[in-house]
Amino acid sequence: MNAHTSIRTDLTVREAVGEDVRIDAFVRAHPAATPFHLPAWSRAVEAGCGQRARFLIAERAGEIVGFLPLTEMRSPLFGKALVSVGFAVDGGVLGEGVEPLATAARAMAYPSIELRGGPAPIGWTVESDTYLGFSRPLAADEEAELLAIPRKQRAEVRKALANDLQVVTGTSELAAEHYRIYAESVRNLGTPVFPKRLFREVLATMDADILTVRHKGRAVASVLSLYFKGTVYPFWGGGTEAARALRANDRMYFALMSHARARGCTRFDFGRSKVGTGPAAFKKNWGFNGIPLTYARWSSGPARDVNPLNPKYALMVRTWKKLPLPIATLVGPWISRGLG
């Protein structure tokens, strides 16, 4: 869809090609934007997973007033869909032109469209009972942060702080170590790991870094975080089997709060978790209240459903947990690149 489509006399919607810099400026200036709206995120997904990025913009008098980033998800296992935006927890329409942008997305002739956050177009299926988002302000200093954590979890953090653990931060120099830990962590959850290149592209093109916790020189927990408008987003994190006894994950997230505060952040976004799951309970124990996330979906037939809690994937999840780590790490990226 390259031609302009008139919606009103003062608003046009079109597909933007080669305008990433212009779109980036609009996203950074918009108060509701997330790092997943940035063109750099979509380009990292495109380069790392081979899923094409397409950008729809709404303009008035030549100025961008609305934006819808889309990822063309294509998978022999999970089908085809347009997702806003691929491999992210947020996205959806940013700014004005919700209805014309949605109409333009439907004209791309995909069987299913998923909008993660943002306003829902009229008539689309709205889902707000599957995922919770967890976010709160950072405290003024470490002691205040400890007091902001509920008593039971605070005791766990104090035990973690007393353990013989070292914290290091960096970017590409920690990437291989982080990937090894993350791959083990998601294998244990029954989920295929994402391609290495996705992580490398995000580190290379976005404001992101890695925080790793080591015990006796060996990494046991690690998280790759995004930074955007004063908020830290711990996005890809996990720990080895040894991390639990060492309380390394507790040390990791508390250290990240301090690290983010030193970087000038004032808010900690713990990301999304499914309602009623262990990760949701873990975040609540840290003093984060879960807020329902609203996603919108349009489909011309059976909607794509890649939720791992879907009963049809139960056997796949159980089998994946039992795979030897080298095999899971080798095969996982081929599968996960189509999850989106």
From TrEMBL:
InterPro entries for the chain: Acyl_CoA_acyltransferase (IPR016181), BioF2-like_GNAT_dom (IPR038740), PEP-CTERM_FemAB-rel (IPR017469), PG_Glycine_Bridge_Synth (IPR050644)
Highest taxon in the source lineage: Bacteria
Domain annotation BioF2-like acetyltransferase: ranges: 154-283
NCBIfam families from the UniProt entry: pepcterm_femAB
Protein name: FemAB family protein
The organism of origin for this protein: Sphingomonas jeddahensis
Lineage of the organism: Bacteria, Pseudomonadati, Pseudomonadota, Alphaproteobacteria, Sphingomonadales
